[in-house]
């Protein structure tokens, strides 16, 4: 992934690596939390050079990289079958009511809470086509919301103002939603599995989200400084 050149939007060097990697990390988390780990999915990410760089941002990412990249090709089908079974066990809401990958369930909210999340998506102009009927507050959908906003911020922002608006939506969503419930979700996931894949994903998620919020705030401060200098 490369950062497009936008004359009025300056990306400080300290933010460049983060911006180049965060979209990949969000997409990896969406892919593995949102569907069973197929052979094509595992092969895709284990061979992705950009993902290899992005993984170095967190210890959980390095765990995942070691696990996925150390496997012999002939072993991947068996590994995928094992991890598919683990995905079904972990993500089956009816079988494990205390471990549900949804914000409302983790925070003890009513089912109608999904309407709050869907309103947030609608306000940002985003509508998801959910092939498997996922709830709007499912971990994969909330992470995909961040991935979509990231892409818009990089590729459709032609001014500091538009970038700032998209940045603030992401900052608010992390503060008001993802970071309020994913620490508990990750704690429960860590206790529920010994899978190197899902432990790596859990560790990556719990480490990356606070780091991402910190970097969003740092870039926001840089944009505000740039805007003030141009005023």
UniProtKB/TrEMBL annotation:
<dbReference type="Pfam" id="PF02613">
    <property type="entry name" value="Nitrate_red_del"/>
</dbReference>
<dbReference type="InterPro" id="IPR050289">
    <property type="entry name" value="TorD/DmsD_chaperones"/>
</dbReference>
<protein>
    <recommendedName>
        <fullName>Molecular chaperone TorD family protein</fullName>
    </recommendedName>
</protein>
<keyword id="KW-0143">Chaperone</keyword>
<dbReference type="InterPro" id="IPR020945">
    <property type="entry name" value="DMSO/NO3_reduct_chaperone"/>
</dbReference>
<dbReference type="InterPro" id="IPR036411">
    <property type="entry name" value="TorD-like_sf"/>
</dbReference>
């Amino acid at each position: 992934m490369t950062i497009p050149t936008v004359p009025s939007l300056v990306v400080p060097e300290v933010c460049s690596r983060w911006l180049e990697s965060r979209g990949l990390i969000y997409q990896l988390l969406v892919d593995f939390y949102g569907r069973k780990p197929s052979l094509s999915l595992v092969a895709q990410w284990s061979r992705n050079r950009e993902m290899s760089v992005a993984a170095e941002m967190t210890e959980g990412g390095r765990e995942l990289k070691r696990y996925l990249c150390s496997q012999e090709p002939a072993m991947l089908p068996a590994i995928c079958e094992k991890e598919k079974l683990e995905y079904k066990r972990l993500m089956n809401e009816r079988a494990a009511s205390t471990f549900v990958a949804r914000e409302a369930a983790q925070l003890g909210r009513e089912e109608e809470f999904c309407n709050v999340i869907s309103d947030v998506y609608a306000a940002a102009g985003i509508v998801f086509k959910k092939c498997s009927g996922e709830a709007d507050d499912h971990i994969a959908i909330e992470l995909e919301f961040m991935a979509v906003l990231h892409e818009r911020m990089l590729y459709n922002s032609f001014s500091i103002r538009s970038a700032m608006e998209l940045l603030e939506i992401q900052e608010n969503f992390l503060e008001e939603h993802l970071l309020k419930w994913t620490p508990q979700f990750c704690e429960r996931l860590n206790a529920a599995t010994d899978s190197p894949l899902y432990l790596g994903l859990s560790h990556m998620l719990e480490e990356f989200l606070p780091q991402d919020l910190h970097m969003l705030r740092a870039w926001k401060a840089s944009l505000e400084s740039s805007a003030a200098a141009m005023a």
